[in-house]
Amino acid sequence: xxxxxxxxxxxxxxxxxxxxxxxxxxxxxxxxxxxxxxxxxxxxxxxxxxxxxxxxxxxxxxxxxxxxxxxxxxxxxxxxxxxxxxxxxxxxxxxxxxxxxxxxxxxxxxxxxxxxxxxxxxxxxxxxxxxxxxxxxxxxxxxxxxxxxxxxxxxxxxxxxxxxxxxxxxxxxxxxxxxxxxxxxxxxxxxxxxxxxxxxxxxxxxxxxxxxxxxxxxxxxxxxxxxxxxxxxxxxxxxxxxxxxxxxxxxxxxxxxxxxxxxxxxxxxxxxxxxxxxxxxxxxxxxxxxxxxxxxxxxxxxxxxxxxxxxxxxxxxxxxxxxxxxxxxxxxxxxxxxxxxxxxxxxxxxxxxxxxx
Length: 357
Fold this sequence. Notes:
Radius of gyration: 21 Å
Number of helices: 10
Low-confidence stretches: 33-43
Oligomer: single chain
């Protein structure tokens, strides 16, 4: 993911990685430029590197596609980790800010790792809930470090969960009637034609979310890259297409919550950790609904409720009993209200912050 050579994100963006290291004489910032690759030992904190101790990390990100799409000069920070030390945090943020200023950017936003199409936001509510796959889960003190460094809220992102085995019957009946009127049908992903199915998703993804705050179109290469990563964990029954007369008008995708299995290997070692993970994966009973989108002209056709029902019905039959949906923008009241009507409740808040450069 961090490789400038392998991640197609870098076909339209650039980034610099920084580590904060504590030496016997104080603190220092190290910039990762040699070979374009970061030191992979920096993922956990603190980490000892010879006579130095890594106490923080950050990435500064210039996403040209974002600036072109939104006609602004926003830069981003991401992959932020830090000990509870304001001095370390300030040094990291200033290093990222200086790099972004050099490129003529006027606002620093984050965390996004790398963009809103990836993990983004800082957890500010819901610390007593379990971490879920592809969702940030940070210590509570992170928000204080960010706010004391001069950042203010830009947008909140809500996460929802449900343990209900089915949608309310009245809602489902209404959605079915509307869908029948619009001749909408559902079908699951065909794994035998996996990459053809991915090609069907590409135009829908960028069209269904284009009006959302902070949205950034994904290139074909980025979607292919993501699909290749997710293919080994895809459950085809949990990916559903809504179609009208054979043409896709929406889709939804959920995956098992792999964090349930991954945390059984706290050392992070491949051997024998992979065996622990594979064994734990057999007992996963939670899913995360990653995406649900409908083309704008079909948003009041009941397709969204039908796809939620499809995923929940299929997942329940497969033994899943808990689902998370999100994130949802804090001002997307239509989607938030729809989720509540379908039996979900809001239980986590992620926050994106801005700071003028």
